[in-house]
Amino acid sequence: MIGAAAPRVLASQSRDELPARLQPVTRATIERLADSLAHESLPVEPLYDKAAEGVLKGADDARIVAAIRGLAQRLREARVLLGPAATDAELAAASSALHAGAAPALIRGLVTTRDDRLPGRSLGLPLVVLANLIADGVPASVASESLTTLMVHGARDDELSAFRWSVARDIQGGTTPAAAASGVMARLLRTTGTGARQP
Amino acid sequence: MADHDLRHTIGALRRDVPMRPEWRSAVLRDVGALPFPEAPARGSSARGRAWAFRPATAVAAGLLCAVVGGGLTLGVERLATGQRRETAGVPVPAESRGTTPVRFVLVAPRASTVTLVGDFNGWSRTATPLRRTGGALWSVDLPLSPGRHTYAFVVDGVLIADPNALDSADDDFGVRSSVVLVSDPHRT
Fold first, then answer.
1. Distance (Å) from the C-alpha of residue B96 to the closest C-alpha of chain A?
2. What is the ipTM of this complex?
């Protein structure tokens, strides 16, 4: 069974694999959007992936097109924020953070912190965690500040992920999202002996 | 029941059940004991190739990071159907061919079929079935290219996100998906 899946595993979606269910006009729209992104040196696979995802989840063509238009716009915005050296994963992660409600200025702040203090550090996972925290109800500014603080204090990707799970658990336990994020961060910083910083 | 008693009860029910160290060790041992995929026999219906994996201690270590780092048990989630499902997406180090095998695991004792859908297989409901191993455990190892991948499980026809994974947080269709990030094995 693993072997049977192999031919598709390494290849993300492409225009040749747009779901057959899509109407011709929808396919043409997606292809135009993809061509536009390609000319801007932006990844196009996410558009086709989004189309396939929408078909699987039962969305109609109009909803799929709307989603893809939004994704294309966010990828453009992500490129502006992250710069030309950003990886496709970082662009996609930034897109999801924007979709979740992160203001561009917050993402720019993470980029500045990375460039100034953590050169070479990927922002893929931090941006995913940012999106998740915001989706959990943590105010975007609190989420961003928490992640920045943890990153500056040397937190690895798995630790940032653990931070998000701890925050989610505290929220489930009745703590407000903002207090949960601040509280977990303070606990982590105390544990590392670096001292707590006020968000 | 008085309101304060009800709130106390609800609060107690919502608290995570702490996992004792010996339970965690037992789970890690079981996950680590999952058999490596074997090359398909000649003439079998399966196609493709087998991949080599480094020792399963790396799998166990990855799961430990996922579990300990998550501060949870195995992310137990009680669903409307009454099933308890626990999942983890654990990067499995392997000989590099530009991809990294990732083991997707789901505990679904009452499921008849479990498949994996995501951007790596065109969100196909049938391309990537999970294999039942050890009774309640379902798993599949999949080589993924470096980058961000969104996925979900289809359990007896029902699409569910991985409760132990981060959300993709960009759902446009009303059904959550999960995300896994695969690092580039060639980058430091």
1. 13
2. 0.83
